[in-house]
Amino acid sequence: MATTAAPAPAPVPVRSPLPSSLAGRTAVVLGGSSGIGLAAAGLLASVGARVLLVGRDEERLESAVARVTAAGTGAPAEVHGMPADVTDDDAMEEVLARAGAVDHVLMTAGRPARIGPVTELGRDAARDAVAAPVGAVLDIVRAAVPRMEPGGSITLSSGILVARPRPGMAAPFAAAGAVETLARALAVELAPARLRANAIRYGAIDTPLLRSRYGADGAEGDAAIAEAGAAMPLGRFGTAEEAASAAVFLMANPYMSGEVLTVDGGQSFA
């Protein structure tokens, strides 16, 4: 008896690749209470997207929601916040259940890297430094994909250590490389569901995390960051908004998948 082949899934929806096409779409921003995640949330709200911010610090998250709401279009932006640890699988399930149908997921949350020669890191610390970041991404993907709409996207975060490794950074370098490889693998695996996956390789960006490394606070901090940034190829560090705009581009363009974009102002080649 002949069998009937299952009909091919519909192609990915054709939409304008401009950010305006994100109006009314739901974006979950993990690590959205500061830095690049917060900047991305503001850009998304400014084009009318519905935004759910996720971060560990509840007080900082409330401040971020207020700031992003103010960045919205003419009508009040639909912006929500939910405190959660992105490494907590159960918490991520709860976050995504609250979000409902999800169009885009941006993961910018991270944790301090384990720095030091691999021979000086304990076995458990070395393994955790590589496995934990990738495991967190996999857990989020597993929770998000069943709730995502065709044409949606997952955007992961990497860094230029992948292109320019330094001594003592083998563990975070390995984790960042694994995240980029995972983005490409997910692009293939999720394509039949008409979902997309990409990664962004960031250089040094002027965020609270970078400022903490320079001990830069207030007006004196601005001067310290300007002085340090003068050594960059373009004479300054990138802004969080400049970095975040790459994520918005990847969400908006329905034909971008399996890509690793670099946003570093030429730092990879300097």
TrEMBL record:
Keywords: Oxidoreductase. It comes from Actinomadura geliboluensis. Belongs to the short-chain dehydrogenases/reductases (SDR) family. InterPro entries: NAD(P)-bd_dom_sf, SDR_DHRS6-like, SDR_fam. It comes from the Bacteria. It holds the Pfam family adh_short_C2. Residues 1-20 are annotated as: Disordered. The lineage of its organism: Bacteria, Bacillati, Actinomycetota, Actinomycetes, Streptosporangiales. This is SDR family oxidoreductase. One of its GO terms (molecular function) is oxidoreductase activity. The keyword Methyltransferase does not apply.
